[in-house]
């Protein structure tokens, strides 16, 4: 049962980091005027957009696994930080789901919407990204600090998530107040951190994750 970190956590961490980055590279919406948004929403979705959605969904599911494992792994040593990971992570998941529902609603009702409403829905998506970035940065920053204190990973990985998590919270808070001023560089670097964490796990299991996995497996 000690294979849990390698067989579950490692691929989940890699997918959680790689999939969002790949999805944005494959296809990215370009918001224009309300009329242009409606035309694009009513048109058949291109293949690249479908691939992008699939990648986002895979990465999203993998992120849920990663957050759950990290929260469980640091719970014994740093229960408060584990709680932050759980609460902030769950809130981030809820925000992302709501953002997806907005996009679906736009496509389903494009023929009945006016341009102003279409622009409002796109603005809601943009605002949701900043809120999502705030909550995910908070969750991963807390996880990084918990891993640092527990010694479950190399110190540089713990510091990476802790510092980028703090910067991600700050920049996303600015983006919530002034959406056009949001600079998601720390958010992107946290995705890269997930990839680095997964790569580190391929070399050796994380002690706390192994112990936690064994405990969960015996329940």
UniProtKB/TrEMBL annotation:
Assigned keywords, A-Z: Membrane, Transmembrane, Transmembrane helix
Taxonomic placement: Bacteria, Bacillati, Actinomycetota, Actinomycetes, Propionibacteriales
Residues that span the membrane, as ranges: 47-73, 118-145, 157-178, 184-202
Protein name: DUF4386 family protein
Highest taxon, organism lineage: Bacteria
């Amino acid at each position: 049962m000690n294979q849990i970190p390698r067989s579950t956590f490692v691929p989940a961490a890699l997918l959680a980091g790689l999939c969002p980055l790949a999805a944005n590279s494959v296809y990215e919406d370009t918001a224009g005027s309300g009329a242009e948004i409606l035309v694009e929403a009513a048109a058949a979705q291109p293949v690249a957009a479908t691939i992008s959605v699939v990648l986002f969904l895979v990465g999203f599911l993998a992120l849920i696994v990663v957050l759950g494992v990290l929260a469980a792994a640091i719970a014994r040593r740093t229960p408060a930080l584990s709680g932050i990971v759980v609460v902030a992570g769950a809130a981030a998941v809820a925000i992302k789901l709501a953002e997806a529902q907005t996009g679906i609603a736009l496509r389903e009702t494009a023929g009945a919407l006016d341009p102003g409403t279409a622009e409002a829905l796109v603005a809601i998506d943009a605002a949701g990204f900043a809120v999502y970035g705030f909550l995910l940065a908070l969750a991963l920053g807390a996880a990084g600090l918990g891993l640092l204190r527990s010694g479950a990973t190399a110190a540089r990985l713990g510091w990476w998530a802790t510092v980028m998590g703090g910067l991600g919270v700050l920049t996303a808070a600015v983006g919530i107040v002034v959406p056009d001023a949001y600079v998601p560089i720390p958010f992107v670097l946290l995705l890269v951190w997930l990839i680095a964490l997964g790569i580190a796990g391929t070399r050796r299991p994380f002690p706390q994750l192994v112990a936690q996995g064994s405990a969960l497996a015996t329940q």
